[in-house]
Amino acid sequence: MLIIRPITAADFAALKQIAIESGHGFTSLPVHDERLWQKIHHAEASFAADIESPGDQGYLFVLEDTSNGEIVGTTGIEAAVGLHTPLYHFQQNTVIHHSAELNVLNQLKTLTLCNDYTGASEICTLFLRESYRRNHAGRFLSKVRFLFMAEHPQRFAEKVIAEMRGATNDRGEPPFWGWLQQLFLTIEFPEADKLIGVGKKSFIAELMPRHPIYVGLLPAAAQQVIGQVHENTKPALKMLEKEGFKHRGYIDLFDAGPTVEANLTDIRSVASSRKVPVKIVEVLGESTLAVANTELKEFRASFGKQASFDETSGELLLSPAFAAALQLQDGQFARFINLDQR
């Protein structure tokens, strides 16, 4: 059985291995011991905190295969981004150049450095080991965050964002990066990637262009990938779009991948999740349900057909093994969604 739970200090080695496997471009998990320890300790403190509004909290979960004890994935939520370390994006705009005398009207696209998403919650740090990318595991890893947010809405902002990885070339480098490096940063992409991953972002404010950039002046290769996602990220983007996330024109500074957004209460899995009492009984349902308990530090979630909602009684029927894995007893409440609904 695959179980989601809050990360602990005992998961450090597994988290570092995930950071290694995730590769360049996955800046939320750098291969940097001190930074990884900071993330774990920060997550532990966040789950333990008694708060009524979102602040500098980060909730990091791990996916454990209970059959062998291995950690096979991770997923996370930042409660409010940009409060201490600025979160920068390029915003896409259109400016009009008009000459009545010449009867010329030009609509030109621009990119402007901004930090408009300050204070928004961010779903992030999603990684699933390749051998487990089957049987709803990826969908569960993404959607389980919405179960947690639905149960603890006071911990999150009304606006939720997700930064999607941008397109890369055959060498794994973003075509968008080339012009930026040549004109402004003069450091290699892996170095910039590493600096961002360990939280050293001051160089962005110091070196990035402060005035709007005309997109038409960029190399064709850079223009073509603006707002485009990495091939491996397309399924994740499609899933978020079905949840109600939309691209409003904000892109990543370095790979030009889109940042998508949605209001928390409008996210499909948040709005459609149901909180009901549990009844423990042998059961084999027709649908695959994602089920979570209502705890914080002891949050547990899993998915499968050993769960079924009884419309007549209004109870969530769970098999004994499923209930035990989620630390649930008869009469306690659980929150669930149907993973088969697309």
TrEMBL record:
Keywords, ordered alphabetically = Acyltransferase, Arginine metabolism, Transferase
- A Pfam family in this protein? AstA
EC assignment: 2.3.1.109
User: Does this entry carry the keyword Acyltransferase?
Assistant: yes
Keyword GTP-binding listed? The answer is no
Among SUPFAM superfamilies, the record links this protein to: Acyl-CoA N-acyltransferases (Nat) (SSF55729)
Q: Which NCBIfam families match?
A: arg_catab_AOST, arg_catab_AstA
Q: What is this protein called?
A: Arginine N-succinyltransferase
